[in-house]
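re: ur question from earlier - yeah i can do the single chain one, its not a big deal. heres the input i used so u can compare w yours
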Amino acid sequence: MVAKNYFTHLRRLMMTIGIWKVYEPGVSKLRRNIYRVYAISFQLVCYSAMVSLVGEMPSLVKTDPVAAMDSANRFIVYIVIIIKMFIWQSERMVKLLDAALEQNSAIRKSSESDPVVSRIYESHIRLNNTVMSLLVTSGTSVAVTIFAVGDVNLYRFVQSSNGTDVTIKPLPHKYWYPFDKDRHYLIALVDQHVRPTLSCFCIGVISASINSLTIFVKVQLRVLQHQFRGRWERGALRSLKLLCSRHQRLIRHVSDFNQSLKYVILLEYTVSSLTFALLILQITAGEQLTINFTILVLTTLQLLTFSWNSNEIILQSMELASALFRSNWYTQDRPVKVLIHIMMMRCQKPLSLRIAWLGVMDLNAGMSRLKLGYSYTSVVKN
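and the output i got, formated as tokens:
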């Protein structure tokens, strides 16, 4: 019996940032209300960071254009986070997650009697947990880098002041506050440790959530491949119709996935190249080298991870036809052979995640974003 559950860690992470909306049966109304209050409070803290960036922007444009460009880059990141969080809490996404949980229960039940399905399921749980840990850790590391640089600046400030009265004190972010930042420096400094950490954690969790659902599509494809290769008894039309129904359900699931996340994928695809170019420009100019390099690594990692998982869905879905061919179709009755032939023709059209109306998201699309970002950089520098 499989003790692990594919969605255990995903559920915990999404609940942490308040975007998990699929309630389990038996959860009391009180607990739901407490969670709603927590979710709203957590997200308001993240949203307030965007307001602080916007509030400081007019003065930065006049006094420090480089810092203004850096704030604009981070503002774009915050906008993307907010849009993603709203989409994840939409009714369409709740239905998608609910369907995925239902299919997960079916696979877990099959794994109890089929060792191959159990191995497929458990191996993808390990893969999923590794990818999620990598993305969440990389997102949090950006926040750690940001406030570590701020702490170093603070230490240098203390060392250089030598007890003199210095009115301007360093902060890692150019945030607007409704109070005097120098007078209430400790409050501002603590705030600039907390809000970036929560925001960067949200970036990692949302990216991990998208990849987790993508990997789960791969789980379903691998299980179907195993079942398609089965040694059916002669005249196993009923069994094959059941597998055909599962394949059709998976096709609808991927279609719903595309409809639910098409704007998230479009954001990842379009914003990534601009972010990539701005970060390279700031790094080459020597502006906040450590921070921008960490953000650049995170941006590249998120884009390539999702592109690779999307590409795997295309390849695995095309393997379904080969799996059917490797079954004992030649021993079956004519109605079974006809159904297998129809299924093989349908499998020639691979499942894929799409970038809204722009086409398929695969490794080539991901690499093209990085190349486009580099092209932007070259044009601006020349």
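Residues 8-381 form one domain. not sure if urs matches, ping me
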